[in-house]
Amino acid sequence: MLSYYRVEAVIFDRNILVSGSQDKTVKIWDIKTGRCAHTFEGHQGGVWCLSFFTPNLILSGSHDGTIKIWNVKERKMARSILAHDGPIWAMVRHGKILVSVSQDKTAKVWDISRCLLLKTLTGHNKPIFAVDMNEDGTLVITGSADRTVKIWDVETGEVKKTIWVSSTTSVMAVSYHKGFIAAGYDNVVCLHRETGKLIKTFNEHEKRVESVQLKIEDPEKITGAIISSGQGGLVKIWNTKMPQSIQTYKLSKEGGSVKSIKFDELRIVGGLKDRIRILDFQAPNSD
């Protein structure tokens, strides 16, 4: 699957894959054939993050500071929100609640069904690059260039916990699951409890980590998996109990950055410099 500039974001379901790119477009792909079904244009900057709202409505966040809603069936932009005073680097949705984070150092909580701003979360003193939510949508987790991860109460807008993840550099990725937080900074992936306690660090990446996804199977035994990717062109799968990765995939032969990864039980999808790679575990030679 080809784009024209660096792919910054990917999401997918059973039928379609959606990509956002520095070429300012949102592209809809047939996940089975790899063909581009439609290209949405309208952003004035690169598209850095995506989310499904419904199977027919796609949300995109851009370097231009806007969130746009795209109608896949009607192939048109449904709404545009001037959301932030700087680039939107990441967003996450839980039900009708969307949280976007930005270069402007804020996280904003939206009722996206009404395009209504509910709260602005302020407390980071540098840009926010990453965001996630807990399973019931009551907590927001943010990762920032100020080297911290913050846990916010959605209802009150207050910080419940600040975790100093890195002593030297920006937190580029966060993923929350069942009381645990995986974070990526520099070439490191770390696993923390929600309380802030460091459980383990994983150090095999040679370059900056830019995407992590965490899945905890047993919170008491702290068993589960982390998938991470970054500037080295590698996707690594980790067992939370082991210091070494259990599997490594090189998505980019040239060693380019893997900016975004998503996975389910059957596939890992990664966005690269100018293309999208799909690892389909049902089809050993898929590309």
TrEMBL record:
GO terms for molecular function: ubiquitin binding. WD repeats lie at residues 13-39, 40-80, 121-162. InterPro entries: WD40/YVTN_repeat-like_dom_sf, WD40_PAC1, WD40_repeat_CS, WD40_repeat_dom_sf, WD40_rpt. One of its GO terms (cellular component) is cytoplasm. The lineage of its organism: Eukaryota, Metazoa, Spiralia, Lophotrochozoa, Mollusca. It holds the Pfam family WD40. One of its GO terms (biological process) is proteasome-mediated ubiquitin-dependent protein catabolic process. Keywords: Cytoplasm, Repeat, WD repeat. This is F-box and WD-40 domain protein 7.
